[in-house]
């Protein structure tokens, strides 16, 4: 689960991380009020969307010469003008895709005189199973480009969970950023705050880009991207409230209500599978047959009729779906019960696209009979390879 920059900064400030003062705004009036509460003489009006690259982004409705999603203002009037121009517009950045994101919130914050910009991130390193700190002197820009062109400028420091954060980690980060004296001490303090926030919130990533040195030699977090482990949200009710549903895919939100693990993808073959591993294998074999999956969907071990129906509806709500492949292994769930669920769901949603079903496991014959006798145009498949070949052929035939 991700949150907005302004929420991330409010959170980090509680852990003693230095951030410029600022206020969120949902309207032009609120933006003006927010600006009046800040001292000036420089303000920054920042689009709040769950995507980076806002500064270099472009608004769809404004011409190519218009300013991006992070704008400096030298007066409250200028803040008003920018807010009026940005709110309700669609911002396209390297991270939003071509569709862009509608800007519904702004962050009005103190403008800072920047001397230098660094990159500092904390994330879970899957290889070591530890929290890793990634630091680079090349901040402000696209870190992927830095990693690609000048990998020697990226330093990674892993933290042993048994010891937690130690003073030497702070020194290592300061050294990686080329900081000495008081700035090195500030870097260690920033790292301590970020690490405490990371641990305290069950974060999966905290990315600061840029971490700036100001003209008066202060380290300051100017941009923050924070994501949490969704599986831990049950013990962070206050953080769960920061979720902004307008930033999420509507079908993924619907799926989460039914406890279905659904992720939308770009292809046209909808998949309904039980078990994450089988779901991955199903997507692979669709690709092997020359097509692309429209989604990942794991209905879980205890899928019942309600879940299957909800899953069908979610898959079909995606207009790019041209066919559905159901691949279920009846272990805990028996195949006949699943077949009943599929038939009921297919009737309820008035299925118009081809449906291929592969059932295997307990009571498989009863399940196959139910599908065959349903009178619905369901194509039965014998195994996974057969199922994938059949759905790809059906979709091609229908096109
Ligand atoms: P994004 O990464 O989405 O483009 P940032 O918040 O990093 O958005 O802003 C882009 C750039 O704008 C930063 O690299 C920094 O140079 C400048 N900037 C951001 N916030 C401030 C601020 N409070 N004061 C001065 N400059 C800022
Ligand atoms: Mg940034």
Structure, described:
The structure is a single chain. With 399 residues, the protein is of the alpha+beta class. The chain has 3 domains: 21-110, ATP-grasp fold, A domain (Dna Ligase, domain 1, 2-Layer Sandwich), CATH 3.30.1490.20; 114-240, D-amino Acid Aminotransferase, Chain A, domain 1, CATH 3.30.470; 250-398, Rossmann fold, CATH 3.40.50.261. It has 13 helices and 19 strands. It has helices spanning 5-14, 28-36, 76-86, 143-149, 167-176, 181-201, 237-240, 250-257, 276-288, 305-316, 335-348, 364-372, 384-398, and strands spanning 22-25, 43-47, 58-59, 70-73, 90-92, 101-102, 106-110, 114-125, 130-136, 154-159, 203-214, 219-221, 224-228, 261-264, 269-273, 295-298, 323-330, 355-361, 378-381. Strands 8, 9, 10, 11, 12 and 13 form a 6-stranded antiparallel sheet that branches. A 4-stranded antiparallel sheet has the order 1-7-2-4, with helices on one face. A 4-stranded parallel sheet has the order 15-17-18-19, with helices on both faces. Helix 8 packs antiparallel against helix 10 (305-316) and helix 10 crosses helix 11. The model has no long low-confidence stretch (mean pLDDT 93). Bound molecules: adenosine-5'-diphosphate (ADP) and magnesium ion (MG).
Care to count the β-strands? 19
**CATH-defined superfamily of the largest domain:** Succinyl-CoA synthetase domains
Helix fraction by DSSP (H/I, runs of at least 4): 25-40%
CATH architecture of the largest domain: 3-Layer(aba) Sandwich
- Described by the principal axes of the CA atoms, the overall outline is elongated
Give the count of helical stretches: 13
Low-confidence stretches: none
Binding site for substrate: 274, 331-333
EC number: 6.2.1.5
Subunit structure: Heterotetramer of two alpha and two beta subunits.
Cofactor: Mg(2+)
């Amino acid at each position: 689960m991700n949150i907005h920059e302004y929420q991330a900064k409010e959170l980090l400030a509680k852990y003693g991380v230095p951030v410029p003062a600022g206020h969120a705004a949902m309207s032009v009036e609120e933006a003006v009020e927010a600006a009046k509460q800040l001292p000036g003489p420089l303000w920054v009006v920042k689009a709040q969307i769950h995507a980076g690259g806002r500064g270099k982004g472009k608004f769809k409705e404004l011409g190519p010469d218009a300013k991006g999603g992070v704008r400096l203002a030298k007066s409250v009037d200028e803040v008003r003008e920018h807010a009026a121009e940005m709110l309700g517009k669609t911002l396209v950045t390297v991270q939003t895709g071509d569709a862009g994101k509608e800007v519904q919130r702004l962050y009005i914050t103190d403008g800072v005189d920047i001397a230098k910009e660094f990159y500092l991130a904390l994330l879970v390193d899957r290889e070591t199973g530890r929290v890793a700190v990634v630091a680079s002197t090349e901040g402000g820009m696209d870190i992927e480009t830095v990693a690609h062109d000048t990998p020697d400028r990226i330093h990674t420091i892993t933290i042993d969970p048994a010891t937690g954060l130690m003073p030497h980690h702070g020194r290592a980060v300061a050294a990686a950023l080329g900081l000495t004296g008081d700035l090195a001490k500030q870097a260690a303090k920033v790292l301590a705050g970020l690490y405490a926030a990371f641990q305290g919130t069950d974060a999966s990533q905290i990315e600061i880009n840029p971490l700036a040195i100001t003209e008066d030699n202060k380290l300051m977090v100017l941009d923050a991207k924070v994501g949490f482990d969704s599986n831990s949200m049950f013990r962070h009710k206050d953080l769960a409230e920061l979720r902004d549903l307008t930033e999420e895919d509507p079908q993924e939100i619907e799926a989460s209500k039914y406890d279905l693990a659904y992720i939308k993808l770009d292809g046209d073959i909808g998949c309904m599978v039980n078990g994450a591993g089988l779901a991955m294998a199903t997507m692979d074999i669709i690709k092997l047959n020359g097509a692309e999956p429209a989604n990942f969907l794991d209905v879980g071990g205890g899928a019942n009729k309600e879940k299957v129906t909800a899953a069908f509806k979610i898959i079909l709500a995606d207009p790019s779906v041209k066919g559905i492949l159901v691949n279920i292994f009846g272990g805990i769930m028996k195949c006949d019960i699943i077949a009943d669920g599929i038939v009921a769901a297919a009737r309820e949603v008035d299925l118009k696209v081809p449906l291929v079903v592969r059932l295997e496991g307990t009571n498989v014959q009863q399940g196959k009979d139910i599908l065959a006798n349903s009178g619905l145009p369901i194509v039965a498949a014998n195994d996974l390879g057969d199922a994938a070949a059949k759905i790809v052929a059906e979709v091609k035939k229908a096109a």
